[in-house]
Amino acid sequence: MAEPNYTEQKCPQCGAPLQFDPASGNLLCEYCGYTQYIQHSDSEVPQEAPAFSSAAFEGKPGEYPIYNCRSCGAEIIAPRETAALTCPYCRNNIVLTDKVSGGLKPDGILPFKISHDQLAGVIHNFTKGKPFLPPRFFEAAEKGEITGIYVPFWVYDGEIGGEVSFNGHITHVHRQGDYRVEETAYYVLERSGDMVFSNIPADASEKMRDDYMDSLEPFPMQDIMPFDMKYLSGFTADRFDVTADEARIRAQRRMLNSALGIMESQLTGGYSGVTVHHNGLRLRAENIHYYLLPVYYYSVTWKGTEYTYAINGATGKMVGKLPTDKSLKQAYWWKNFGIAAAAALVVQLIAQLF
Amino acid sequence: MKSGMKKLFALLLLLVFSFCLASAAFADDDILGLTPDWFPEDLNNWQQFHCSPSAPRVIDRAGILNPQEEELIEQRIRTISADTGKDIAVYTDVTAYGWPHAIFANDVYDFLGFGLGDDYSGLVLVVIMDPADRDFTTSAGGSVQKLFNEKHANELDDILYDHFVQGAYGAGVLDWVDHVENLYTTGEVNPVPLSRRVTTAAIISAIVGLLGGSVTTGAAGGKMRTVTTAYSAQGHLVPGSFRAGPGRDILVNHTVNRIYDPPQPKSSGSSGGSSSYSSHSSGHSGVSHSSSSRKF
N or C, which terminus of chain A has less Cβ within 10 Å? Predict the structure, then answer.
């Protein structure tokens, strides 16, 4: 098999690997301080989707190509969907150009805004307001490496329209002498309309948990830049392995759920027991973009259990499952039990006095 | 013949005149001049008074109490009155002399000189055993009127009623006197024992604590959950993009249910029968009382 195309970003002054610096938005040499500005091309982020919604993968899933690092000659094995990686031996940044060019070139990229240095503060803020988190959890846990990765996303715009009919009723109760009279009027409520949704992301990577990626929203889509490989330096990147067709159902479901809710909000008149009689809402038009969005991935092991966290690389929002300290939870419950019971006792005492 | 007609005419005149006199007598609320022996002869010059401290507090003209019951009730009343400074009296009779029973009970209170202290405080129970109109009436005077509200009146009437319908007049009056003592000393006819109040307060506090602890812990637990699947795209709606199309509301059916549900009569009694309560009543003296009556 012919060696795939890849590029390495090297400092022209000292030859060290150049890293993308989220703080400045440019490439930075950590050794000599050299800064290389990333010149943005005149082209805008494409608004029309390229026709790769049914693009097939090259090769078979699970095949691991082998790359040779040009700096140290080490052999690196990377999954087929990997588009950028760091040599584990010499920390050289490698971008596999064939995974991000031609028909696979992303429409845009949201550069990292949160640097590695800022992650400690992000993690500290994440632990605030978590009353049942074991004390000093992140300090005490066995920490894995924090990996900055550009996750491939399909981002959908859609126009939803159609007709919906609901069942509803209105009941009036009044008295006539010794009788209670209940009058109920049953209605079919027909409503129609259309609306546009934009920038609904659905991750295009099998290995990324959909609920984690959903929870990291919102991504600031207004900061999307035209794709440039230089942004990938120092970070890992994947190309998509979930097609736009496969990911579409998640975005469509969200749009249709919200559209139905908006149509129901149009019902006025005090109707009770509203149920959907017929849902004719359909996706009328669609636009799809292929973006790389920044995510930090972080795993810790605590008492033999691995806990994985994701951090939105643009906003710093952190999500993940947290362990619960049962004794803290019980103490919290008893404390609030005591406060509520004491308050009830005081109120009863005051009521007795008056 | 002419003299016979004259005699007949005179007799007729006499009858008419007698009828008018009788009507006048009836209009005076006095059945042919019959009043209780304690009724004042000169009502206009009557002044409120205290009867002798040794005067009996149990006057059983209807004969519904045996001597032992009378003695027992008398002793209880004297003890309570000495402790509380408020009077209690029991009066039974076979007739109310044609007067409304509330008026009669108030007259018993005033004209027999019941009530202690400057404001003539006390409670008088009057039992009328008229077969055609049998009931008991309680009259309150002085500061006891504040204690004798409708709720307490009903509670005391309930106690009497439960005994009287079974013919247990002595036991009923004794029970009534005991509960009057509760009313005088605690302000309640059926005071809740302290132990039960403490238990009730503790149970209520525990339930509130349980709810409070669970709700706050649940809310805090929600903060620990940071991962959710997105089902909505509300935040992705392009502002101003929603265009509502035509809509219509179609009436498809109309039903009318008529349910027989007569308003419940307001019952003032809980154990049987109902009381007639008045916070402002008086007898022939004009002195203000509160009263409550119930038939049995």
Answer: C
